[in-house]
Design brief:
single chain, about 240 residues, alpha+beta, Phosphatase 2c, domain 1, 6-stranded antiparallel sheet, 6 helices
């Protein structure tokens, strides 16, 4: 079986309207590996202190779950957030999204997701969304109550219907995917997707030579569009052992 390697980069930015960053990414910085790679984005909520703590606690727990699959890592992260709330009751009400992918050395992608951060797969210039938003607006669109064109300006667009920290037995969306050499996986917070249309995300990420160029090009585009929220992106490129 063909082995896979990955080049990755991540970035997070406070944006142009907020005074603090409640997002977290994993891993931080950039690099490459011929081994399994875990990538993740979390978008915290619950006020200045609570949001930052929720996303960082979740990310630390998910990333340090050695050998765990994507769903297991998300569930471990959820319990970590709940335990922190129990330890510090002043943090009651905090929570976080978490979108996490385990990229295997065999080209497999194990994806788990809760909230309205997203995962995309860019293949041959075509961008495919791999996750469903757990938000009030998304549910209204699915039920036919809301025109998708009106979603970005809806007053309840930031209302999340599922997040880590709400309950111990959380409902996690999962999916499995098979990567091909040349694929680019993107994870992002809604600070990107609320500011930049998917066609533009595809264009910017598709034109970028490296994962780092994709990450910072997308963050710059979100800021140029107004940057009303924190913006976080992780990009990972898949290649075969032959360098495909």
């Amino acid at each position: 079986m063909t082995g896979f390697s990955y080049r990755w980069a991540s970035g997070t930015d406070v944006g142009r309207a907020r005074d603090h960053n409640e997002d977290a990414v994993w891993p931080e910085g950039s690099g490459d590996t011929a081994e399994e790679l875990v990538i993740a984005v979390a978008d915290g909520m619950g006020g200045h202190i609570g949001g930052e703590i929720a996303s960082s606690v979740a990310m630390e727990a998910a990333a340090s779950a050695v050998g765990g699959g994507a769903e297991e890592r998300v569930r471990i992260a959820n319990l970590a957030v709940i335990d922190r709330i129990l330890e510090q009751p002043r943090l009651a009400g905090m929570g976080t999204t978490l979108t996490l992918a385990v990229l295997g050395g065999d080209g497999s992608m194990d994806l788990a997701h809760i909230g309205d951060s997203r995962a995309y797969l860019l293949r041959d210039g075509t961008l495919q969304r791999l996750t469903r938003d757990h938000s009030l607006v998304a549910e209204m669109i699915e039920s036919g109550e809301l025109d998708p064109a009106a979603a970005s300006s809806h007053p309840f667009r930031s209302v999340i219907t599922r997040a880590l920290g709400m309950e111990r037995n959380v409902d996690v969306d999962t999916s499995d995917h098979r990567l091909e050499p040349g694929d680019r996986v993107l994870l992002c917070s809604d600070g990107l997707t609320n500011m930049v249309e998917e066609d533009d995300i595809a264009g910017i990420a598709g034109d970028a030579e490296s994962p780092g160029d994709a990450v910072w090009g997308l963050i710059a585009a979100a800021n140029q569009a107004g940057g009303i929220d924190n913006i976080s992106v992780v990009a990972a490129d898949a290649a075969s052992d032959a360098g495909g």
